[in-house]
Design a protein that fits this description.
The protein is an alpha+beta fold. Helices cover 41% and strands 17% of the residues. A hairpin with a 5-residue loop joins strand 14 and strand 15. Helix 13 runs antiparallel to helix 19. The longest helix is centred in the N-terminal third of the chain and has 37 residues. It is elongated, with a radius of gyration of 41 Å. The N and C termini lie far apart (161 Å).
Length: 580
């Protein structure tokens, strides 16, 4: 029931008052200000929807474009940024074909700093590190405030160490030198120490020279290096040799294509698996640090200096039955008594007669022998990119007895690399070269000459007879006209006298215009009853033949099976001179 009182209505309980709200809402919605707010809100929503649709359209178009044309939108800037961010502290070392010999990578090192509870820490960490808990505990107790747990850990090992419950474990990024080829070319590259300081080989050269380039390409060909090391290793096992070494070098510019010294080592593990004496013995480079009496291979220098000084010609004959007793109680002997009493100079080399060479050396004389061998580089210390180099062992006194023994390869210790370099001058037309691990221009050639081109040609002819008809037959690889000389030398003992032998073969191919010199040597190879002997004919020569056969095609040496036949008149002339 409603009652009016003045302008107001009296509302009684139970009356319907909804009309009051309807009226208020109608007034609100009909208000112009409210209508304007609704309009603005709708416009804002419509604008937001349009922006969203535009962004979605742009994203869709961009994604479709990337899928269809990925090459057009990949930039180079990220790569450049990455290179600048990861600056290696030491340059990569590559072979001549760009294959990695040594590189630097970032690895993780786990360590323990200020360990408080050594026993508990050892128990928790030992299973992860695959160590004995008691041994690890002792190491922690002795370490003091800092102990290295492991180097080069994996992500899995890092996770396990983090969750081992040892709060003092910490991790650091460190640079480490990696040698992906392991033992291959180890005596060339050497190894780096913990702080990346070079410990030996070319690694030491980098540290010493302060090279800052990002990479260095050496003259080494890892394919040839692999063949050389494999054949030497097989030979060591077959002939039960104590050691072996070999080298292949460009005869025209001195670039070293392969260099091996066995036994070798793995530079990745040299710090962990060897003591200092083992490191020194395994990293000793016989090619550059050793000094050896090489035996009959030295006869090529005796013959070359006599021809160069015009003391003899190839046709001059020498009495191989002659008794030569200079400063010795007994007559000088050949390895085997010659069946023919008289041999010409070329045959003296082919038959490797000591008695012949002694007579030739006496004709040349002591002073000329010294001068010639010095000009050949055999009497001086070796200067080379590898800092570990040896020195020759000269006779003292150097008298007529030394003159004779040096003529056939005894009494003078020479560095193998110096010997190979000097031999290159004998066969390359007479040009003196220097060995190197850095690549040179192809037309590189020095003007200094050791012998004339004519004498060099005569020497190539004489060395061809050794391979074709003499003790170098097992290196006579068809199509390459291999030339060379064999040698088997008694090795001097530390206490005096001689004990053991060193067998060698020095050769060159292709013989008509030698591009490469090869030296193969074995330390104390053994003979096998009723199968083989111990001279170079049985070991160094066949190894050299195998290496040439495998390497020549890789070095782009084209076979010429009819070279000697086509050059018949020329060789006939030289043969006639040597047989007169």
């Amino acid at each position: 029931m409603k009652e009016k009182k003045g302008n107001f209505r009296k509302i009684v309980v139970g009356n319907d008052i909804s009309y009051l709200f309807r009226k208020t809402q109608q007034q609100k919605y009909s208000n112009p200000i409210f209508q304007e707010s609704i309009k603005i809100g709708r416009e804002r929503i419509r604008f937001a929807v349009n922006i969203f649709l535009a962004l979605f359209l742009i994203f869709s178009v961009r994604n479709t474009f990337l899928s269809i044309f990925p090459g057009d939108v990949i930039g180079h800037t990220p790569i450049k940024v990455e290179i600048h961010q990861i600056r290696k502290p030491k340059p990569d070392v590559l072979d001549r074909e760009g294959k990695i010999i040594a590189t630097t990578v970032k690895t993780i090192r786990a360590s323990l700093r200020n360990p408080k509870y050594a026993s508990e820490s050892a128990i928790k960490l030992a299973p992860i590190l695959n160590k004995d808990p008691k041994t690890l505990e002792d190491q922690l107790l002795k370490s003091g405030s800092y102990f290295e747990l492991a180097n080069d850990i994996s992500d899995k090992e890092r996770y396990e160490l983090l969750n081992a419950g040892v709060a003092e474990v910490e991790f650091n990024d460190v640079w480490r030198r990696i040698y992906p080829n392991k033992t291959l070319a180890s005596h060339i590259i050497g190894y780096s120490q913990r702080d990346l300081e070079g410990g030996a080989g070319f690694e030491r050269t980098i540290s010493y020279s302060g090279i800052t380039s990002s990479s260095i390409n050496l003259t080494i060909d890892l394919r040839i290096q692999n063949h050389l090391e494999t054949e030497l290793s097989n030979g060591m096992r077959e002939y039960n040799a104590k050691a072996a070494f070999g080298i292949i070098m460009n005869a025209k510019n001195g670039e070293i294509i392969a260099l091996a010294s066995l036994p070798d080592f793995d530079p990745n593990n040299i710090k962990f698996e060897m003591n200092k004496m083992d490191i020194k013995s395994h990293s000793f480079n016989q090619i550059t640090q050793g000094s050896y009496e090489l035996g009959s291979v030295m006869k090529i220098f005796t013959l070359a200096m006599a021809l160069e000084n015009e003391r003899i010609t190839l046709s001059d004959e020498f009495d191989t039955w002659k008794c030569i007793k200079k400063y010795r109680p007994m007559c000088l002997r050949d390895y085997r008594k010659q069946k023919t009493q008289y041999l010409n100079a070329a045959q003296c080399l082919e038959k490797s007669s000591n008695i012949c060479m002694a007579q030739i050396a006496l004709l040349v004389g002591l002073d000329e022998q010294k001068r010639f061998l010095k000009e050949a580089g055999l009497l001086d210390e070796l200067f080379f990119e590898l800092l570990e180099t040896g020195s020759p062992v000269l006779p003292n006194p150097w008298n007529e007895s030394s003159l004779i023994t040096i003529s056939f390869g005894q009494g003078l210790g020479v560095i193998p690399l110096s010997f190979v370099t000097a031999t290159a001058a004998i066969v390359n037309g007479g040009y003196v070269i220097e060995p190197t691990l850095y690549q040179r221009e192809k037309p590189y050639r020095t003007q200094a000459k050791l012998i004339s081109s004519e004498v060099s040609e005569s020497m190539r002819f004489a060395m061809r007879q050794v391979v074709k008809n003499g003790s170098g037959k097992k290196a006579n690889i068809e199509g390459y006209y291999v030339i060379g000389k064999t040698g088997t030398a008694d090795q001097p003992c530390v206490t005096g006298g001689y004990c053991g032998i060193l067998t060698s073969f020095i050769g060159a191919f292709p013989g008509w215009d030698p591009e490469y010199i090869i030296l193969i040597s074995y330390d104390n190879p053994e003979s096998k009853k009723n199968v083989r002997g111990s001279t170079s004919y049985w070991n160094a020569v066949p190894t050299a033949g195998n290496v040439i056969k495998l390497s020549a095609p890789l070095l782009n040496i084209v076979k010429d099976d009819r070279y000697e036949e086509r050059q018949n008149d020329r060789f006939t002339r030289l043969a006639e001179v040597s047989n007169d």
